[in-house]
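Sanity check

After download, print the first record. It should look like this:
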Amino acid sequence: MKKTTLILVILLACFSIQAQNTNVKLGAKTGVNLSKYTPEKRIGNIIISEYQFKVGYYVGAYVNFFISDKIRIQPELLYSTQGTRIIIDNITLTDANGMNIATGDFESTINESTISIPVVLQYFLNEKFSLEGGPQFGYIINRKETLTGSLTHENPVIEKDYDKLDIGFNIGIGFDISKKLRVNSRYFLGLLERDDLAKPSIFSLGIEYHL
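Expected C-alpha cells:
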C-alpha cells in the first residue's frame, strides 16, 4: 500500500510539473529484454557453469526534460522481469564407494521481479536519432530459483535470502518514429554481484509513447 501511494504521488507531481512547463513530457513505455548473469564460472579454460539468456519484459512511465535541441534528461520508473538460466552439463553422481550412480545435466532458472529507476541522458545527433546513457538504481522485490534437468526429479523451487539492490549503468540508442512514438534499445550492466558470484547483463528493446 505504501509503495502504491508513493508511485501515485510521484505521478501526480509529474503531471503538475508538465502543466507548468511545456519543456517537460510524460510518457509510458514497455518492451522485452534478454537477461543473463556474467561472467561464466570457469576452472582454468574449462566452463563448469554456463549462463544463458532468459526472456522477460518491462513496463513503466517516464518524465522527459527538454534541456536543449540536442540534450534531454529522462528519469524512469519501471517494473521488469529478468534473471538467467544456469546449465551444468555431464554431472556424474557417485555413492560412498565411488561408484557411479547417475550421469546427467543440471539446469536452473532464476526469475527476478525488479523495480528500477533509470536516469538517462539523451544526446540527439539529429532531429530523430539519439544516443543515451546513465545510471540505474533498482530493488529486487522477488527472486525464485527453479531446478530442472535430468538430475532433478521434482522440479523444486528454491526460495532463500538474496541481494536486493540492483545498481548499474545503461547505454543505448533511440529513434523518434513520430511526435508521439519512440523506439529504443539499451544494454544494462550491473555493478553489484549476485551472491558474490556474477553480475546481471540485460539487452532490452522497447517502445515509448509521449502522453
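If your output differs, re-run the checksum step. Summary of this record's structure: The mean pLDDT is 81.
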